[in-house]
Structure formats: C-alpha cells, structure tokens
Specification:
- This protein is an alpha+beta fold.
- It has seven helices and 13 strands.
- Strands 1, 2, 3, 4, 5, 6, 7, 8, 9, 10, 11, 12 and 13 form a 13-stranded mixed β-sheet that branches.
Length: 294
C-alpha cells in the first residue's frame, strides 16, 4: 500500500544502490537544463515554460500548480495553446493522467505484486544496474539499444539517425546534475534510463531496452533501481513514471510500481487552430482528457 507512513524493512534488492541519490534541481535550474538540451524554454509571468510540438506549451516543471488567471506562457511562444495543473480552488477544464508512486520514501520490493517481485529478483540475478560511466559506450551500445527499441515501438520523434542520436545522448550524458542509468547483461549495455529530479519529484524522462534482452526483464530492473534511488534521495516524495497511455495494456507494467494519478488541469487551445488539428492533438497527447470547453 502506498499510503504507509513508515518505511518497511528493506530486502537485499532494495539496498543495491546504497549511497547513490539524485541531485535535486530547483525549478529554474531544471528549466535551464532543458534549455541547454535544446528545448524551447521561456520565462513568463513567474513560470518557466517549455514548448512541445505544434506550438503547445506546458511548465518546465510539469507538476507546478498554477491559477490560469495569474500565469500563462507568452502568446508568441504558444500559438496553439498551453496546459498546466490547476492550483486548488482555481478553474480546471481537463484531467492529466499520469503514473506515479506517492510517498516513495516507503517503497520496497516487498510491496510489489508477488509475480512482479519475482521478475525483479530474476532480472537482478542476471543484470547489473549502475550509472553509465563511458560516453563512448553509451554512444555505441546505447545506439543499438535505442534503434532496437524504436523499431519495436515506433514511439516519439525518431533519433535513429546516428548523428541525431549521438548529439542527443551526448547532451544527456554531459548534464552535470544527472546520470544515465544502465542495465548490463554480461557487461554489455542492454537498456538505459534517463532519470532526473526537481523540487520534490523524481522523473523518468526516457527509458529504452534492446529487444534481444527482453527475456531478462531489464525494464523491471531499471524501474526498481529508479524507485530505490528516489527513496533514498533527501526531499523526494514522489516518483513520476510519465503520462498514462490511451491503451491500458501499455500501462500494466508500470502500474505494478505505481498508480494512476488524475490531476485537474487547465488547457487553452487556440480556437482557430483547434479546428484544424484538434483530432491530432488527442492522438499526440492521449493522457490529456479534455472537456468540450477547451
């Protein structure tokens, strides 16, 4: 149960990353890290905003609670519209669905479903999960992992061209306040995760695994490691595993580690643009449940 206030006794698999924690950024530092990585970022009316695709904006710290009557992105930077979580007591017209582990300080493998717990133990008996130390290794073996994952899932904007992947992963590796978490099978990188932390939340910003290694369950090993590191990071109360999918079957894996969180939010969409791309927005952002008034 996630509402336990006292941390349970740790098992051996919970203590494999003792001494490792995330460096927690404040909101401005978090925003500037995204800007340095190539994201379109701007500061307006007291909030750092990040441009998504198609001229849509959201706060750089996605869980920031905002009253839309007080803050919004610059109109020229958000021609399609914007969304943010709604401050309690302020207007909301949509629901943002994500998967999160609340009170992560109390996380233990003992709390996970027995079948999933056995999978994690099996995975950790074959795999070693540790921060990736070599950029050359990440650029070479990580590229094979990414390409395999992209061919399997087709998710996201493709970085399958070698030079595109190299630029992206080099930027991720060199961020001074972060590390890349890798899963190794016989000392070969078969999966990696890009975690980060800001304010009181640890995030999974990206994870990929090689299809040939799925039998060893590297994703289970990585998510368990992520939650353990979040648990022992001072100030972190929540582990966010990303938006919920429109297909429940795709969320089943992560729901063994967290739960669906439904957060009231406010969405504004340019009426003229919505007529042209409204249906595409629903496909692009399935985790956003819009009301007819948006």
């Amino acid at each position: 149960m996630q509402d336990l206030l006292e941390a349970p006794p740790l098992c051996r698999e919970d203590a494999l990353w003792s001494g490792l924690d995330f460096t927690v950024a404040d909101e401005e530092t978090f925003a500037r890290e995204q800007q340095a990585a190539g994201d379109s970022v701007h500061f307006h009316r007291g909030v750092w905003w990040r441009g998504l695709r198609y001229g849509f904006c959201q706060p750089c710290f996605p869980l920031r609670l905002i009253d839309h009557r007080e803050a919004w992105p610059h109109g020229l930077r958000a021609p399609l519209g914007f969304m943010h979580l709604a401050r309690p007591g302020s207007p909301a017209n949509a629901v943002y669905r994500s998967i999160a582990r609340e009170q992560v300080h109390a996380y233990s493998l003992q709390q996970v479903d027995k079948k999933r717990r056995n999978l994690v133990r099996s995975a950790l008996s074959r795999l070693e999960v540790r921060p990736v130390q070599s950029l050359a290794e990440l650029a070479a073996e990580g590229y094979q992992v990414y390409r395999s994952w992209r061919e399997r899932t087709g998710w996201g904007r493709s970085k399958a061209r070698p030079q595109v992947f190299s630029s992206w992963i080099t930027s991720a590796f060199r961020r001074p306040r972060r590390f890349v978490l890798g899963a190794y099978l016989e000392d070969k990188l078969v999966a990696f995760m890009l975690p980060c932390a800001a304010h009181n939340v640890a995030f999974v910003s990206f994870v990929a695994s090689h299809s040939s290694a799925l039998w060893a369950h590297p994703n289970d090993a990585l998510y368990h490691a992520f939650l353990c590191i979040a648990r022992q990071t001072p100030g972190i109360t929540t582990a966010d595993m990303g938006p919920a999918s429109s297909k429940p079957s795709l969320d089943k894996f992560k729901l063994d580690y967290g739960a669906i969180r439904q957060s009231p939010c406010y969405v504004w969409m340019n009426p003229a643009v919505r007529l042209l791309v409204g249906s595409h927005i629903k496909q692009r952002y399935p985790w956003l449940q819009l009301s007819a008034a948006c």
